[in-house]
């Protein structure tokens, strides 16, 4: 029984001393923006932008660069030329292996206009 009576005064005394210490120390808000924190923010922004540019460059290099731009000619389908004949209509010359196909393209409609062998052999393209 005596143990219960001893714990209550000890808890009460420690709580009152803790609350009195927190009241005595005034709260000083930190400075909003200093030179060092401003430089840190600018450096972080530059780092994030550089990372985004690097990721965009890598995606462009490995996703869109492919055989079309390297001159290897391993793609089975390639657009040789394209010409707009209206606001939303185009005539497109497509190379499929050794054959050129002239195609009319409109919204919701694609039609073959002419099929011809590739002129000038394999090494020549327009």
Question: What would the keywords be for this entry?
Answer:
four-stranded antiparallel sheet; alpha+beta; 126 residues
Overview of this protein structure:
The chain is an alpha+beta fold and 126 residues long. The chain folds into two domains: 2-64; 75-117. It is 46% helix and 25% strand. The protein has three helices and four strands; from the N terminus they run αααββββ. It has a four-stranded antiparallel beta sheet, with no helix packed on it. The protein is elongated, with a radius of gyration of 37 Å. The model has no long low-confidence stretch (mean pLDDT 77).
Quick gist of this model?
It contains three helices and four strands. With 126 residues, it is of the alpha+beta class.
Please identify the structural class as seen in this structure: alpha+beta
- The total of helices stands at 3
Task: Give the overall shape.
Answer: elongated
Percent of residues in β-strands: 25-35%
Count of distinct strands: 4
Mean pLDDT: 77
Question: Low-confidence runs (pLDDT<50, min 5 residues)?
Answer: none
Largest sheet data: 4 strands, antiparallel
Helical content class: 40-55%
Through-space gap between termini: 103 Å
Rg (C-alpha, Å): 37 Å
H-E order: HHHEEEE
């Amino acid at each position: 029984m005596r143990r219960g009576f001893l714990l209550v005064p000890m808890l009460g005394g420690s709580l009152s001393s803790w609350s009195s210490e927190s009241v005595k120390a005034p709260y000083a808000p930190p400075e909003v923006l200093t030179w060092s924190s401003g430089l840190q923010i600018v450096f972080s922004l530059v780092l994030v932008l550089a990372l985004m540019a690097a990721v965009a460059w890598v995606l462009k290099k490995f996703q869109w660069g492919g055989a079309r731009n390297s001159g290897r000619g391993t793609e089975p389908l390639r657009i040789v030329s394209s010409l707009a004949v209206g606001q939303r209509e185009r005539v497109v010359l497509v190379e499929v292996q050794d054959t050129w196909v002239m195609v009319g393209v409109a919204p919701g409609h694609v039609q073959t206009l002419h099929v011809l062998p590739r002129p000038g052999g394999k090494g020549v393209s327009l």
